[in-house]
Design brief:
Number of strands: 5
Helix content: 55-70%
Strand order of the largest sheet: 2-3-1-4-5
Largest sheet: 5 strands, parallel
CATH architecture: 3-Layer(aba) Sandwich
CATH superfamily: P-loop containing nucleotide triphosphate hydrolases
Order of helices and strands: EHEHHHHEEHHHEH
Number of domains: 1
Length: 203
């Protein structure tokens, strides 16, 4: 089974790329969904976050208020490092279990984990191939502003809190450019999908 790590900065179109890869029969795990699982009420992850940041980051139902936490960590590199040190090991462990289960079943040729902070957390090292999704910087900012209904300044702050697109590209086995919109992104993704299938068939 070919293990593929897919990453890219915020608002570059990773979710759409993953939808296309699933059409090719790839198994895809979204790290953001895993991140939500590890902070459900009663989990070690949520308990650790409350210990570190206080109960003010919970909503009235006792669930993590991700927007409140986001406002705290985006503007403070040390706090961002703290939250990552709590969550990354839990997320990586769940991802590992998912990959192991697929491998035991023996029915999957290509398994993909989509994670924005894969390079920052160094979890990229366990994959056979790395796909980096990217787009023009101005396109990225506009998408982020539209998606989150935020100002250019807020969007820039979010973008700058992550490794730059250029730095992420240096780790790529394959690049998928989403600048041109849905049509071009589909064409670019399909090329990469076919290349990954070829690698998987040779393994």
């Amino acid at each position: 089974m070919l293990k593929v790590g897919l990453t890219g900065s915020i608002a570059v179109g990773k979710s759409y790329v993953c939808e296309i890869l699933e059409e090719f029969g790839f198994k895809v795990l979204d790290a953001d969904k895993v991140a939500r699982q590890v902070v459900k009420p009663g989990t070690r992850g949520l308990n650790s976050i409350v210990e570190a940041f206080g109960s003010g980051i919970l909503n009235e139902k006792g669930h993590l208020d991700r927007k409140s936490l986001g406002r705290i960590v985006f503007s403070d590199p040390q706090k961002r490092q703290l939250i990552n040190s709590i969550l990354h090991p839990l997320i990586i462990k769940k991802q590992g279990t998912w990959l192991n289960n697929l491998e035991k079943e023996g029915k999957t040729r290509v398994a993909v984990i989509d994670a924005a902070l894969m390079i920052e957390s160094e979890s990229y090292k366990r994959f056979d191939e790395i796909v980096v999704v990217w787009c023009d910087d101005e396109v990225q900012l506009k998408r982020l502003m539209d998606r989150d209904s935020i100002s250019r300044e807020e969007a820039l702050a979010k973008v700058k809190s992550q490794l730059s697109q250029q730095e992420k590209k240096e780790y790529a086995s394959f690049l998928i450019d989403t600048t041109g919109g849905f049509g071009d992104t589909r064409t670019n993704t399909e090329k990469v999908a076919r290349a990954l299938i070829e690698i998987a068939n040779k393994a």
